[in-house]
Amino acid sequence: MHEALIPLQTEIKTFEEQLPTLRTKFPIGTYVLFMGTCLVGGFSTYTAALEAGYEKAGMEPFLVKQVSKAGEDVQYVYGLRA
User: Fold this and answer.
1) Contact 26, 67 (CB under 8 A)
2) Can you give the pLDDT at residue 64?
């Protein structure tokens, strides 16, 4: 795991574990927001998910990840303290 992603270990692991379920719960392309092990919700745009993350988490780490088809990988997007 890249050093910058270490603060998001919990969120990344939770996303990966829940991905099969997320693919049935949300349309492909939906952006999901995780804080810790909690799925905060799904959003139709990256901007909406990011805004919700900063609103709910403030300066605490959170993960925004796009739900992809099986076999596709989408880059991690996250909020971290500056």
Assistant:
1) yes
2) 92
Q: How far apart are CA 62 and CA 73, in angstroms?
A: 19
Cβ-proximal residues to 64 (8 Å cutoff; 6+ apart), any chain: 31, 32, 33, 46, 49, 50, 53, 77, 78, 79
- Amino acid letter, 44: S
Helices (H) and strands (E) in the chain, counts: 2, 4
The Cα–Cα gap between 23 and 82 comes to 32
The answer for residues whose C-beta is within 8 angstroms of residue 42's C-beta and 6 or more apart is: 22, 25, 26, 30, 31, 32, 33, 67
| Residues 79, 49, 51, 56, CA torsion sign | negative
Give residue limits of the domains in the chain.
Answer: 17-79
pTM: 0.83
Q: Encode pLDDT of 49-63 as tens digits.
A: 999 999 999 888 899
